[in-house]
Specification:
Helix 1 packs antiparallel against helix 5, helix 6 crosses helix 7 and helix 7 runs antiparallel to helix 8. The protein is an alpha+beta fold. It has ten helices and four strands, in the order H-H-H-H-H-H-H-H-E-H-E-E-H-E. The chain folds into two domains: about 190 residues, no CATH class; about 70 residues, 2-Layer Sandwich (Alpha-Beta Plaits), CATH 3.30.70. The longest helix has 25 residues. A hairpin with a 6-residue loop joins strand 2 and strand 3. It is elongated. The two termini are about 20 Å apart. It has a four-stranded antiparallel sheet. Helices cover about 60% and strands about 10% of the residues. Its main location: membrane. One of its GO terms (cellular component) is plasma membrane. Keywords: Cell membrane, Membrane, Transmembrane, Transmembrane helix. It is found in: Cell membrane. It is a multi-pass membrane protein.
Length: about 290
Amino acid sequence: MKRIVKDFSVKDFIMITIGIFLVAFGLEYFHIPNNIAAGGVSGLAIIINSFLSMIPVGAIILVLNVILFAVAFVTVGGGFGAKTLYASFGLSVIMWVMETFFTPGVLTEDLFINAAVGTFVIGIGMAMVFNYGASTGGTDILAKILHKYIHMDIGKALLVVDFIIGLASIATFGITAGLYALLAIVINGNLIDRLILGFNTSKELMIISKKEQEIIKFIIEELDKSCTVLNGYGGYTSEDIQVLYVILSRREYIRLRGFIKEIDPRAFISVNEVHEVLGEGFIDIKL
């Protein structure tokens, strides 16, 4: 085992827990009752459950993850981290609680709505889990094994594994449910990527103002951030100027914009969106 314990803050715990709850909800109330096996260990568990209906899907996911983690420790050396272990086994626990105490059933008979809403809810949950440095294990482990032994790119390996599960879904549940499962696999991957970008979006600002010292003080003291001061030269005025470069969250940007409007309405502000910022004050670069 290379690394089991990593920094696991209370915020990480809460957000990952919310994420796996959403995944469990999407599976239990939309995908599982309608036999939509949209890839991953959960999709494989839905297929197995169709043959072993006395075993809950959550329990099957737990057994599959235990087997996969054991195989991975032998073949690729583990190194999953506490967050991934928590998310993987926590998902099974939440699903077991739902199956035991709430008896999930079909909310709507419309297969399209079940596939679409279920995929959307699961996508939000998975994006939250990934965004806080965890994963739910499962087919990620199979992809690592394929990558090691046949040198297949991990992204392609994940797609191959999920596609095989999708084909198995067609053979098990018929062409309609199977094709919805394949569609959900494709949409889910793109949805997760876009949601993660949305979670991490920040504002990149370039500011030119004659009140630069007041602005710097506001950024440091009120927003608890820092900024970089760049020396520039005005092409029109032929004067030396200072350009402030800073990256802020959307809420911080709104506060700073309001402050600049009050003290220097003629200031120049250039704003861009950035989708990932790593380092002090933002996302840990080690994640």
